[in-house]
Amino acid sequence: MTDIIDGAALDGSVIPSAEPRTPPPGDPHLILIDGSGYIFRAYHALPPMTRPDGTPVNAVFGFAQMLEKFLNQHSSSHIAVVFDSARQTFRQEIYAAYKAHRPEPPEELIPQFALIREATEAFGVAQVELPGYEADDLIACYAKAFEAEGGRVTIVSSDKDLMQLVRERVIMLDPIKQKPIREPEVLEKFGVPPNKVAEVQALAGDPTDNVPGVPGIGIKTAATLLTEYGDLESLLARAGEIKQPKRRELLLTHAEQARISLRLVTLDCDAPLPLPVETLVARSPEPVRLAAFLAENNFRTLLARLGLGDGAPPNRPRPVAAPLADEPADPLEIPFGNYDCVTDLETLKTWVAKGRAAGVIGLDTETNSLDALAADLVGICLAVAPGKACYIPLRHAGADLLTESPAQIPAEAAIEALRPLLEDPAVLKVLHNAKYDLEVLANPKNGGIQVAPLDDTMMISYALEAGAHGHGMDELSQLHLRHKPISFDEVTGTGRARIPFAHVPLDRATAYAAEDPDVTLRLWHTLKPRLREARALALYEQVERRMIPVLAAMEQAGVKVDGQELARIGTDFGERLVVLEAECHRLAGRAFNVGSPKQLGEVLFDEMGLKGGKKGKTGAYSTDASVLEDLAAQGNPLPRVVLQHRQLAKLKSTYVEGLTAQIAADGRVHTDYSLASTSTGRLASTEPNLQNIPIRNEEGMKIRRAFVAEPGHVLMSADYSQIELRLLAHLAEVPTLREAFEKGEDIHSRTAAEIFHLDPANVDKEARRRAKTINFGIIYGMSAFGLGGRLGIPAGEARGIIDAYFAQYPGIRNEMERLKDEARMKGYVLSPFGRRLWIQDIGAKDPVRRAGAERQAINAPFQGGAAEIIKRAMVRTPRALREAGLKTRMLLQVHDELVFEVPEAEVEAAGATIRKVMEGVAELRVPLLVEVGQGASWAEAH
């Protein structure tokens, strides 16, 4: 069975309808559905939904869909959904820490629990729960009781804890994989038969539930030990016979902990049955009751599919205009298309009047370039309501030089007619990726229109679901409106056959262009109300929306680049590349193309005989950076020199030649900031990408020398000091870390002294370097293998260092485990300021993908928190500078650093203002520290 949402599987596949299957007479069969698994999958699979009274119902709707589909495809003589009653059970009396670290359910889910129970009964299915017991215990009890009466049992769940119940007449059905789980599957997963699963879990422990187990014993080792010694008690009694010293000591030391763990993981098959078995008989739902439930919650899709009409109970008609939980409100159901092409001034004035009367309009531009600062305006698109949109062509031409241009309003006249509407403070302009359109319209050649106020549906979506999916208009339209917009390629063609948009016939141009503001306005109606429900309204209003004009101003300003200095750097890099290439040839014993991975692989592995060569599908050896780094770590000089050559060649092509090509007519480079391309809230920059200029090495500093101030000005750098470590100290309970920041101590030296047990006066550079690598590696969830690679030590030694680190700072480990649990439970983690950071692959079966997602869950709040802090500074600093009467302007944002161009006379005042704003944008448990420097170039400002 595959989980179904609205007729489609959660994995995106379409499930064919199935005829109900009736069990053979005399074949008693009980299906027990693990309710918690259904609830949380439904909650995370669907976006927020509410019924008219404001009650959230997305989990209720998803649960009802899955239950209806299951009942349609499976039948049995008896069936029940089993729920957890409360978090406190008899297991907390055994071990107080059991599940103590689990976060509370999301607030939006809590009111849905009761409705889900109503849904179960409305479908005619018995629901079972019992205070003091977990659902798993009740499943065990009913399985035992039904089996004793000669019946067979199917448990619908993927919960590994239930695998201990599998036997000849009791099987499991994985609801995601549609895969039965019998004894061979249990043996494959645990290495033991089902009756030994609990003992394996008792030894291995379970961090998800805080079952302690025996440290250092995993599932594979536990299975081996139980196979050899028979059972847990025999193993613990004979632990002194074990040959491996560490394993022997662990079992002897933690024997009682293993016994407690066994009591925690063993399901109670003798708990009282809340309902007699005979009351679980499968029955058809009562149509009136089911229809009333679906209608009350506005689940129209289910009502229609089940043939129940609108399901309104007698004397309680549904309001005609009520929004529906599972479908867009009626205004959004209006068909797309049939848009107007406005080619005369009087008609345009009519549309302007409609827009001012509406008070909220969709807005979009059509241009001849993706570079907003260089683009010419080809047309403007408006939507005054869903389905009511127009395209205003301004600079369309004929299909070729011989074809007369189509009739259209002169661009200048149209822009002047539109200006009052687009600059009207009483009309909200809704755009998608508003920064682009703002820059296009603000360009004097396009009218110099200052669009305000505005909303941006891209940023609304990003504030709601960063990391959950992309935020392009087409993707959001298909996700939220179930509508696929016309693509650019459909109207302009592709490849050599592509024509400029200005040459597209007006009928096709209108169908494409006017659809965009229509889609944008519908997305606004759909997404904007969700901000409050998701507690993301303040994030959007106070940070994300305010960032749009701030970044537009930064991009328009740009930063001055010294072309002559770049040329000198290019010459220097070129000469050094020649030297490095000659050194590569000397070490190889012959000349070869250093830039050719194929030739390099042949030299390294065929001719020099180095170990570790692996060929790809093309038959060539892999020579990527990780391979070369491994070879270099083994002491081979050629791979190290090749890495140096590659880095220098990349810097030369990207930042010397690339920057030179991007210097505009004003002598400045204008980078493009992406607001919604990362999963953590961080900004990204392109053309050029200023985020990847090396910070610490000599080559990166040389490139920064080419970024200079205008005459009479200096560049000022304001950089947050160790912001992610400060966020770690803020979130995790680490008193010594907080104390070090409060006292202004060198945090890496303090860490080295504590984890390596050194006198602070004896911490040398090497110890501090190791501590620094560990401090930052921990934030990124670095493994022992990764840390060993960074420190140049074996993974075993690195594991010892990590263990020592967590022993010294247990609060950090607890915080990391909390974050992983939060991601598993909710599908996202929260930044320190409440942004939901969605974690893909947190439930992946592939252990590599899942481990990567867990590292992302650990790191995301720190990266996300740092991003929000610097964004807050960016929206506040320009205003603070203006209010101080200063002409200083913000030019660049790179990671945790802001770069300003400051008149020489304002250096002291600007530095004080910038530092005050940046250090005061957030209240953490440790102080924020900003380091400010200035100079004639970006390099000197550091």
UniProtKB/TrEMBL annotation:
Q: Name one GO molecular function term.
A: DNA-directed DNA polymerase activity
This protein's source sits in the domain of life called Bacteria
According to its UniProt record, which reaction does this protein catalyse?
Answer: DNA(n) + a 2'-deoxyribonucleoside 5'-triphosphate = DNA(n+1) + diphosphate
Q: Where is the DNA-directed DNA polymerase family A palm domain?
A: 700-906
Q: Which InterPro entries match?
A: 3'-5'_exonuclease_dom, 5-3_exonucl_a-hlix_arch_N, 5-3_exonuclease, 5-3_exonuclease_C_sf, DNA-dir_DNA_pol_A_CS, DNA-dir_DNA_pol_A_palm_dom, DNA/RNA_pol_sf, DNA_polI_H3TH
User: Which SMART domains does the record match to this protein?
Assistant: 35EXOc, 53EXOc, HhH2, POLAc
Q: What class of enzyme is it?
A: transferase
Q: Where is the 3'-5' exonuclease domain?
A: 339-532
Which residues are in the 5'-3' exonuclease domain? 27-283
The entry sums up its family as follows: Belongs to the DNA polymerase type-A family.
Function in brief: In addition to polymerase activity, this DNA polymerase exhibits 3'-5' and 5'-3' exonuclease activity.
Protein name per its UniProtKB record: DNA polymerase I
Which organism does this sequence originate in? Roseococcus pinisoli
| Protein's gene | polA
